[in-house]
Recover the amino acids of this structure.
């Protein structure tokens, strides 16, 4: 099984030189720690920043400089700032190459649910609905099962959707799965995980 | 025409009324018009509809107006950092129109630009699309979202001049330029008021035509999620 950092490292393999990428809150944020050497990637933060730098040291902290997770960050020589409308012109307009997001549920047809649990957890979609609708490629990083051991890769999502048919690839602690016609293709399994292990804990249709 | 007002209370005099729609700039606690919000919390107005990406935290920003029960309805994309918000909403005491972040920004931009509606892919196939017109362009389905014109917009900038020209700083810009355009009246609070001519005309973010009143504020600029680099944490 892969841990959080390994999942982020796996997802970072998706990054190609010159890409503009948006990273979601949680494990996706860790992906920035694993950008491969020689690959130049520009991170977009949907609150209005292109060219997001690392977290600050104490003397660099600036209340006017945060990422979409409201964490303090730093700027880079390449950085630009812009309004929310301009930020989502980049996102909705298809100018962002890839988004790496967390999820509560993903269906075998690429539906994504990650913004609310009715009656329980009301967080909101933030920019996630815009991202999955507009970005060229959507990669999800999430645990394969929830804390009750139930599959988060489902035939159909049970929670309110963030987007329909929007996910291209899912990286879980058990493996890498691509959304394909009719179900999910196993691209790679984590060390010591067999296809039978995956089938035993996956509700979604596995094509392999 | 004099745009500079002495204080938030003077700037808000005569513009507030029950049931009004207020568009507020800010993302999280970054770039929020904290002085104007604080002043509104001291007023008697109620049944407010507030369009803002977030609702502050329990004791700061728009959270103050939730605590005083002055807000009837929020139009927001993310409320996850505010326990009182979630409590009022789940108890049915507060209406909430969840609006995707980019759709909210574009609703403000469009409303301010005289565009009554626009089609977007965002939210298609989700509950956000319920009851909205669907239309197909180039084999893709879009939904109709409406431009927003607010009775009042409240924004926060870094510097402003007597003409109302505004410059924002770093990610504190966020929704502020968009909110500024969509208010029938826009009040801006700034960290520094400079003389006309002091701002580089090429680097003004919000031209003064959009801003009716401007005050110098006193900003706490609270940080919601202080995160330091790993090396620093070890030290």
């Amino acid at each position: 099984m892969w841990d959080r950092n390994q999942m982020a490292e796996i997802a970072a393999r998706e990054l190609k030189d010159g890409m503009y990428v948006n990273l979601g809150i949680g494990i996706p944020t860790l992906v920035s720690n694993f950008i491969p050497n020689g690959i130049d990637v520009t991170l977009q933060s949907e609150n209005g920043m292109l060219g997001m730098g690392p977290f600050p040291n104490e003397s660099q902290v600036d209340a006017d400089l945060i990422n979409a997770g409201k964490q303090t960050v730093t700027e880079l020589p390449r950085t630009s700032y812009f309004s929310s409308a301009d930020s989502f012109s980049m996102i909705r307009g298809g100018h962002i190459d890839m988004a790496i997001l967390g999820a509560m549920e993903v269906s075998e047809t690429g539906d994504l649910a990650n913004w609310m649990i009715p009656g329980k957890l009301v967080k909101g979609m933030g920019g996630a609905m815009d991202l999955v609708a507009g970005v060229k490629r959507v990669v999800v990083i999430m645990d394969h099962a929830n804390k009750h051991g139930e599959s988060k890769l489902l035939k159909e999502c049970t929670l309110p959707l963030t987007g329909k048919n929007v996910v291209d690839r899912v990286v879980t602690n058990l493996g890498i799965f691509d959304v394909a016609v009719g179900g999910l293709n196993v691209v790679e399994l984590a060390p010591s995980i067999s296809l039978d292990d995956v089938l035993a804990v996956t509700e979604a249709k596995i094509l392999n | 025409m004099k745009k500079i007002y002495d204080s938030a209370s003077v700037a808000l005099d005569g513009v507030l009324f029950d049931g009004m729609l207020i568009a507020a700039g800010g993302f999280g606690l970054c770039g929020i018009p904290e002085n104007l919000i604080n002043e509104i919390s001291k007023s008697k107005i109620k049944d407010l509809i507030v369009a803002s990406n977030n609702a502050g935290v329990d004791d700061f920003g728009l959270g103050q107006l939730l605590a005083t029960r002055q807000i009837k309805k929020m139009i927001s994309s993310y409320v996850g950092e505010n326990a009182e918000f979630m409590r009022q909403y789940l108890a049915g005491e507060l209406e909430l129109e969840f609006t995707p972040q980019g759709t909210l920004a574009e609703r403000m931009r469009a409303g301010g630009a005289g565009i009554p509606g626009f089609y977007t892919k965002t939210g298609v196939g989700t509950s956000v699309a319920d009851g909205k017109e669907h239309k197909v362009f180039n084999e893709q389905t879009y939904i109709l979202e409406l431009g927003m014109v607010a009775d009042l917009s409240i924004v926060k900038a870094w510097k402003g001049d007597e003409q109302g020209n505004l410059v924002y700083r770093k990610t504190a810009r966020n929704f502020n330029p968009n909110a500024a355009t969509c208010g029938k009246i826009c009040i801006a609070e700034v960290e520094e008021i400079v003389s006309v001519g002091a701002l580089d005309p090429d680097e003004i973010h919000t031209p003064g035509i959009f801003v009716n009143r401007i005050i110098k504020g006193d900003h706490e600029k609270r940080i919601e999620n202080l995160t330091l680099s790993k090396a620093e944490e070890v030290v």
